[in-house]
Amino acid sequence: MAYKEFDDIEGLESNHVAFDFKGFLFKVINLWKFVLLCIGAALIIAYLINVRKQDVYKLDSLISVENDQNPFFTANTSISFNWGGVSGKMGKTITTLQTRTHNELVVDSLQFYMDYLKEGKYRKEDIYKRAPFQVDLDIKKPQVLGKPIGIRFISATQFEIFTAYEGAGGSGQIYSSKEVVPVTVPVGEFTKSFSLGEPVNLPFFSGTLMPRAHRNIKPGTEFYLRFKNFDGVVNSYKKSISVGSFNSSNSPVLRLSLAGNNKGKIVDYLNTTAAILSRTELERKNLYATNTIKFIDSSLAAVNTDLTDVTKEMNSFRKKNKVFDVSVEMTNISGKLKSFEAQKEAEETKLNYLNRLESYLQTKTDYTNIAAPTSVGISEGNILTSVSKITNLAIERRSLEYTTRESSAIFKNIDRQIDAEKNVLLETIKSTISTINLQLGTINREIAILSAKLNDLPEDQQEYLKIQRKLDISQEAYNVYMNKRSEAAIVKAANISDITIVDEAKDIGGGRIGPNTSLNYMMGLMLGFFIPLFLIFVIFLLDNTIHGSDEVEHLSSIPILGLIGKYRYHNNLVVFEKPKSAVAESFRAIRSSLQYFYKNKLKEEQEGGKTIMITSSVSGEGKTFCSINIATVYALSGKKTILLGLDLRKPKIFDDFGLTNEKGIVNYFIGDSEFDEVINTTHVENLSVVTSGPIPPNPSELLMSDKMGALIQRLRQEYDMIVLDTPPLGLVTDALELVQYADASIFMVRLDYTKKGMLQLINAKYRAGEVKNISFVLNFYKHKSNHNYGYGYGYGYGYGYGVYGNAYHEDSKKSLFKKVKAFIKSI
Questions:
Q1: Cα distance between the two ends of the chain
Q2: Most C-beta atoms within 10 A of its C-beta, which of 216, 287, 293, 641?
Q3: Helix, strand, coil content of the chain in percent (nearest 5)
Q4: What is the residue-averaged pLDDT of the chain?
Q5: Could you read off the pLDDT of 347-358 as tens digits, one per residue?
């Protein structure tokens, strides 16, 4: 690769490094197997979820909300009923369908708190009406909640109930009162046989199993019953049912929708909720007529009693007395008197109604039970209007009680309207009572005049006419009340609900809305892709190891001299023994770059051999390997080369040349031997080696001695290249003592091993001038890193620096965790 010029660094590199997106991308590409594995696992999980999830269906029905006029209600009908209008009914209907009260009626009528289950592949499945039997539940006795009750058919008519509960206690619910009570359940395995149609009375279940029509019972089949809390079931349906306008907001048609796992239940619930809504709406609509009929019935009973008594009185009188011939004049007088007395009774009836209505308004708060004033002949327009308004407001208020808080402004507004209308009605009642009392006074005076004329008749004739008048008046009153009651009953019977089912729910196939298997697979694909990306991103951010040349360029301005690939070999003499290998070619490239440096950077007047110092941050980065092969590559080029083993703390270079470390440069420094005695000639032509020798107690002091300087000067005269194998720069200061003798320095960086912080260390020393003419050589280069450049041969030499002596506090044995970590990094 091209060699970078050694320029002075103006300042230490900033600690902040922008996110290396390119490096992250290549990291992801390197770990494509891991990403693919995660995607496969996520898709498998999505498949398992899809096959285990129950199908979800959604069905709907249509109902219409309109003001249907009673066909028997005409202008000639004597009793007036106000049925209300369509205005506001849509909102009230939607609200009613979502109230707890309404859904309680539906759940109670369908008994949806009881599930019919059968063991499926992944779970107990709700089979509802597909069960070959149905349970006539005893709702007055508790049924155990949440615990399945097994039913195993022994024959077509015999079955046994079986359970296997772990605890003796449990909760049960009495569905008639909705009370939750404690129940006792059998511990362990329990079985008991019964016959179809035979009542079952157990502490935890009471009911009768009946065969379902058109269903065959197969002996040996097993089913389960499960009871759920009534309030919980109601709440779930209350939240699930959806109500909205059909086509447009002004349409009188509502769409009812419900989603669930069993289409049969959905169909029954939608149709039943519409039927119950129609029934309750009709009951509300008939409330006014019902109250009127009750009032007429109570009045009719009193009139019937009077009529019976008068009839008995007339029969008794006739038995005691003979039949009289009353003159025509007296008969006319008696007829007039009867007419006035009938008027008096009618006015008194009105007066009684008004007094009762006044008392009711003053003492009651529920105004939904007011009878129609026209039922007693009151035709005063103000009274009829006020009663109608009060009744409608009271019904509206009662409908809102299920969904609106008592403190709501809506209630305050309705109560204010009711009070205002009630005050107007009370004033109208007082005025009408006064008018009726005046009329009664006039009628009483006329009755008194006519009665005086009849006083001239014999006493028995007077008594006869009196009884006859009473009989005629009672009969007429009875006929009037009977006619009014018949009229009201016909109107009520012919009345129809404002709620009409337009299109009932029906299972015609389809309706499946879930699970969304495509969405689950898509989610699995996304999670399987992004979760490993996130993990790689976190690892990438937390990773402080150098992985490529681009990271070195980001972290330091020190130039890169060359790259050395991986090459598995049994020793460090790769250049000598494998001269055609890619690694050997890498060292030749480094030699060429060094030659360029020596030619352009060193002073021209400097004569003698050139020195090169090779160091690293810590052990295991390939420092000694590089020293041996750089020395070898120079020797093979014809340069007289000497390799000095100055790593006095951990001697290493002797073994590869078949030498011993018994005597070396340490012996020269301490005066134990002459330098010529420690020089070793190797089997590599032009290459001499000086080993370190015995490990001294004071390596730094020996390297700082004057002998070191004198030795370098001597070697410059005798050799063309002097290669200095020094200790790691990041651990000890020995290498710094040797910088002054080096014409060029190489700092080894082992990819996937050297820490980024070590480059900051060398940057600081370079800036301070402690090291000069230094460059990086990247070791353990792997072509698969992709984001590196240079010689990407993809080879390796399997060199491990191993232990660096006790002075470096490292353990030579790798733990299992480190081995696994190294394997993961190699993926």
A1: 27
A2: 641
A3: 50, 20, 35
A4: 80
A5: 888 888 888 888
